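If you are new to this repository, start here. Below is one unmodified record pulled from the training split, so you can see the exact layout before writing a loader.
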Amino acid sequence: MAQAIQQHTEHDKGHGRIETRTIFVMQGAPAGFSFPFVEQSFRIDRTRSNLAGKLLSSETVYGITSLSVSSNSPSQILGYSRTHWAIENSSHYVRDVSMGEDLSRIRTGAAPQVMATLRNLVMGLLRLAGIPGIAKGMRKLGFQGRRTVLRMIGLG
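And here is the target side for that same chain:
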């Protein structure tokens, strides 16, 4: 069965460079691959050039998705792939840098998962309290003590 390939290209200029992203989307999984629930597979080609047009970097990524063809265009899938980095920057980066997760020596049993859950809880509480910077919020709460933390979660 022949699968139609759709294409979409976006250009962005900022941070002293020009970035071009082109997505090629195909219905179903690529030939020879069997994945459950795959609706579409895609390839994204990214190039970054300086403002003078000199190529700085180029990369190609591949992906699959369960998003339906009828309600998700190539431009939407490209947008979804870009929002992945928002999650990375707002969660994983904060846990790694502000909370020192990568430096943690906790490695056995359920303890690493429990600590990740506690770190996520702290980040969520700080964001719900309207504290814009996690590191700054943790320092502030460290100086103010337990009562402030208990008040934040409605127990104090």
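Two things worth knowing about this chain: The CA atoms of residues 21 and 46 lie 5 Å apart. Residues 74-97 form the longest helix (24 residues).
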